[in-house]
Automatic annotation (TrEMBL):
Functional summary from the UniProt entry: Initiates complex N-linked carbohydrate formation. Essential for the conversion of high-mannose to hybrid and complex N-glycans.
Subcellular localization(s) per the UniProt record: Golgi apparatus membrane
Organism listed in the record: Amphibalanus amphitrite (Striped barnacle)
Protein name, as recorded: Alpha-1,3-mannosyl-glycoprotein 2-beta-N-acetylglucosaminyltransferase
Cofactor: Mn(2+)
Family that this chain belongs to: Belongs to the glycosyltransferase 13 family.
C-alpha cells in the first residue's frame, strides 16, 4: 500500500487529481514489468466476474490502436436500459469507475498531467479531446461495478439516488462475453450496419417531446412494443453541445422517455447511443451528428 501526501493542495479538485497522478506513477514504480493496470476506486462494488471481464477483453488494447481503455461501467446501464451481460459496446466517452489502460496510454497521460492550475476534475481532464485523440473505450451492456458512494466532493444523496441507485450490476460469476473480437474497429462497424439494416425506424415526429404530465404518459408518444426487436430512433442533434432534444429523450426525472444519463450526452459511438428498452435493442441517432446517416 502506498500513502500519498496531497495536503499541500487547498482545492479538493486539485488534491484528488494529484492523488491519481501519484497513484498511477507508483504503479510502474512498484510493478515495473506490468504492461497495463486496472484502476478501482474505494466506493465501488464489483461483480462476481469482474476479473474475468477484464481477462476476456484486455487483448483488445493490443490489437486495436483505436481503443485506449476497457471500462467496467456503462453510464447508460440502468436497470431499465441494460439486460445483456454478454454484450459489449464501443463509446467515445471515458467512463471511469473501474477501468483498464495499457502502460503506454497511462504514460501518455502522465507526461502531460497538470500539477497545478487548470481546475479540471481528473476525469474531466482525461476526457479532453487532446488526451483521447479520437480513441474509444469498450464498455459492457451490464456494468461490472456499482457506485455506492452517496456523498463525496461532487456528490449528494439526491444525486446518487437519481444517477446511481438503480444502476444495474451483473450478478453472474461465469459470463462468457459474446464476440469479443467484434469490438475491433472494422468488425464493430459491420455489426452496426447489420443492426441498422434490421431496425424498425422511428422518426422525431413520432415523439411528442413536450412537457407532458406523467399522468398522460410522459414525453414519449410511441411505445416500443414487442421483445427482441431493434428500433432506430432519429432526433435532431447538430453537435455534442446541441443537447436539448437529447436531454428530453434521456431525461431521468418525470416526465420521462428513456431515462438514461441526461446531464450530458455521453456513452455514444459516432453519434449513436445503444441501450435496451423492454427487452428491445434501441439505436438512437443524433442527426446530422452521427456518421451513419
Amino acid at each position: 500500500m502506498s500513502h500519498h501526501q496531497t495536503s499541500d493542495y487547498d482545492d479538493t479538485t486539485l488534491r484528488i487529481r494529484e492523488h491519481y497522478r501519484q497513484a498511477l506513477t507508483n504503479v510502474w514504480r512498484y510493478f515495473p514489468a506490468a504492461s497495463r493496470l486496472i484502476v478501482l476506486e474505494e466506493d465501488l462494488e464489483v461483480s462476481p466476474d469482474f476479473v474475468s471481464y477484464f481477462s476476456q477483453t484486455s487483448h483488445l488494447l493490443d490489437l486495436d490502436s483505436s481503443l485506449w481503455c476497457i471500462s467496467a461501467w456503462n453510464d447508460n446501464g440502468f436497470e431499465s436500459t441494460s439486460s445483456d451481460p454478454a454484450a459489449l459496446y464501443r463509446v467515445e466517452h471515458f467512463p471511469g469507475l473501474g477501468w483498464m489502460m495499457t502502460r503506454k496510454s497511462v504514460q501518455q497521460l502522465l507526461d502531460v498531467w497538470p500539477t497545478e492550475g487548470e481546475g479540471y476534475d481528473w476525469d474531466l481532464w482525461v476526457r479532453k479531446d487532446s488526451n483521447r485523440l479520437g480513441r474509444e473505450c469498450v464498455i459492457p451492456d451490464v456494468s461490472r461495478t456499482y457506485h455506492f458512494g452517496i456523498s463525496g466532493s461532487h456528490a449528494s444523496g439526491a444525486y446518487h439516488a437519481l444517477y446511481y441507485q438503480d444502476h444495474a450490476i451483473n450478478q453472474r460469476p461465469d459470463v462468457q462475453l459474446r464476440n469479443v473480437n467484434g469490438l475491433l474497429k472494422d468488425e464493430y462497424e459491420k455489426e452496426i450496419h447489420r443492426l441498422i439494416a434490421e431496425a424498425e425506424p422511428i422518426n422525431e415526429t413520432d415523439f411528442q417531446l413536450g412537457e407532458i404530465p406523467p399522468s398522460q404518459g410522459g414525453p414519449c408518444e410511441v411505445e416500443l412494443e414487442g421483445t427482441n426487436k431493434t428500433y432506430a430512433i432519429f432526433f435532431q442533434m447538430n453537435s455534442m453541445e446541441d443537447t436539448d432534444l437529447y436531454k428530453t429523450l434521456a431525461k431521468r426525472t418525470f416526465p420521462q422517455c428513456f431515462a438514461i444519463w441526461d446531464l450530458d450526452a455521453r456513452g455514444h459511438h459516432r453519434g449513436l447511443w445503444r441501450f435496451h428498452n423492454n427487452d428491445n435493442t434501441v439505436l438512437m441517432f443524433g442527426v446530422p451528428l452521427n456518421l451513419y446517416m
